[in-house]
Design a protein that fits this description.
39% of the residues lie in helices and 19% in strands. It is an alpha+beta fold and 451 residues long. Bound molecules: histidyl-adenosine monophosphate (HAM).
Length: 451
């Protein structure tokens, strides 16, 4: 007879032949409890503020991102998952949500909807980033956009909503709101020239990335995290001295709204964001200890984005946060979310006739909001009770040959080890009482309406 114990050990010590690719991960049930909680908060807060949910496809034509995010940004030049379909068309897994939402706004003529159009999303995104803490190749973002109107009060509303969500998740105090304005594209162009002049002759002190960015995307030199680059950036001419009056006034107005709502912010003249479509307002939530590293979220105004996608001049403003980073911070702060997966009842049975009774009983229990699981295999009652213990259920219903014959069932209190016999048709009502009305899982998606 083969040595079963030895075989099991071999299997345990073997590395599974397939692992997930680097930089992506499974969301296991425990983390899904966090995902579910965050989604609920986002849905609730967005609904309250008049946002409606949108889902754009996982991939778009590459142009949608290339034209809008900026060819010289890290996202486009290094991080996009680009592939060709069978007809040779270039497609890209979405690295962010805003460009796709704007493509959809134009395609579905949302200009005809009441303006502004407020939309939110909770979606996976893809960036071929170097995997490290807080940086993944597939990651989830929650985001929201207000498109169709240009007003500093809308930027304030986006910031307020972002902050409210961080508060609801219990982690608002971990972050500071970093705020800046990068002005209109014209003002930025003039400032870019000033920056290039400032850095001329200093190239040798720059990191390799910055040396390259000096010709392609000089603004990014301002938020480089390398020590030498940071020192040079601190001494660089300030963007605010080259901004247009309209942007300065807009920024002052935004700050007055934030003050009114008692939202603290840090004015950060070096904050530029990593995507090209921004104009005027930019902001990020930075970890108070780690700074820009692993910002939890960021956003800003993108008044030129619609035109880049071939649409009419249409302003917009928005924000997105990384769900993995939110969850990591909730865990660091030891914030627990409601555990909705815990079971109430385990149904154990012995014999075919008992099993026949179990299936409708389990359906009835579930319909009454009692979360129920059953061992419908052939195991001995003792094994089934062992399983019930592993599931940590408070109650087990036992039905054996005697119970079938007498039309009864045994209800066992697992913590106390006590049990009682009840009439089979009373099992549900007895259990409901024991579990308590308020603990039942009575969620209803709502009534169906027939027109
Ligand atoms: P973003 O700053 O590129 O902005 O990304 C927003 C957030 O997504 C980041 O702050 C971070 O939490 C998360 N994130 C980004 N890349 C990764 C990654 N590789 N792994 C894990 N998390 C990541 C945007 O995407 C803009 N679309 C935001 C926006 C919306 N602007 C206006 N509307």
């Amino acid at each position: 007879m083969p040595d079963q114990k030895n075989d099991d050990e071999v299997v345990q010590n073997m590395k599974p032949p397939y692992q997930n690719p680097k930089g992506v991960h499974d969301i296991l049930p425990e983390d899904h409890e966090y995902h579910t909680f965050i989604k609920k908060v986002v849905r609730h807060r967005c609904r309250q503020a008049g946002f409606r949910r949108i889902t754009t496809p996982i991939f778009e034509f590459t142009d949608v991102f290339q034209r809008t995010l900026g060819a010289d940004t890290d996202v486009v030049s290094k991080e996009m998952y680009v592939f060709q379909d069978k007809k040779g068309r270039s497609l890209t897994l979405k690295p962010e949500g805003t460009a796709g939402v704007m493509r959809s706004y134009i395609q579905h003529n949302m200009r005809e909807w009441p303006q502004p159009v407020a939309l939110y999303y909770i979606e996976p995104h893809f960036r071929y980033d170097r995997p490290q803490k807080g940086r993944y190749r597939q990651f989830w973002q929650l985001g929201f956009e207000i498109i169709g109107e240009c007003d500093a009060a809308l930027d304030a509303q986006i910031i307020q909503l972002s902050r409210q969500i961080l508060k609801d998740l219990g982690i608002a105090d971990v972050f500071t709101l970093q705020l800046n304005t990068i002005g209109t594209p014209e003002a930025r162009k003039a400032y870019t020239q000033v920056l290039q002049d400032y850095y001329a002759g200093k190239e040798r002190s720059l990191c390799e990335d910055c040396r390259y960015r000096l010709t392609t995307n000089p603004l990014r030199l301002l938020d480089c995290k390398q020590e030498d680059c940071r020192i040079l950036a601190e001494l660089a001419p300030k963007m605010k001295d080259y901004l247009d009056k309209e942007s300065v006034d807009f920024h002052e107005e935004l700050k007055s709204y934030l003050d009114e709502m008692e939202i603290d912010y840090v004015e950060n003249p070096r904050l530029v964001r990593g995507l090209d479509y921004y104009a005027k307002t930019v902001f990020e939530f930075w970890d108070k200890n780690e700074g820009a590293q692993n910002a939890i979220g960021g956003g800003g105004r993108y008044d030129g984005l619609c035109e880049l996608l071939g649409g009419p001049k249409t302003p917009g403003t928005g924000f997105a946060a990384g769900m993995e980073r939110l969850i990591a911070n909730m865990k660091i702060k030891k914030i627990k979310v409601p555990k909705k997966d815990d079971l109430h009842v385990f149904v154990a049975q012995l014999g075919l006739e008992a099993k026949k009774k179990c299936l409708p009983l389990m359906e009835e229990l579930r319909n009454e909001g009692i979360k129920t699981m059953g061992a419908l295999g052939k195991g001995a009652i003792r094994d089934q009770l062992g399983l019930a213990n592993k599931f940590k259920v408070p109650y087990t219903v036992l039905i054996g040959i005697t119970e079938v014959r007498e039309g009864t069932a045994i209800i066992r209190n697992m913590a106390k080890g006590t049990q009682e016999t009840v009439q089979f048709d009373k099992v549900t009502s007895v259990l409901k009482k024991k579990i308590g009305e308020k603990n039942l899982d009575k969620y209803s998606p709502g009534e169906l309406l027939y027109s």
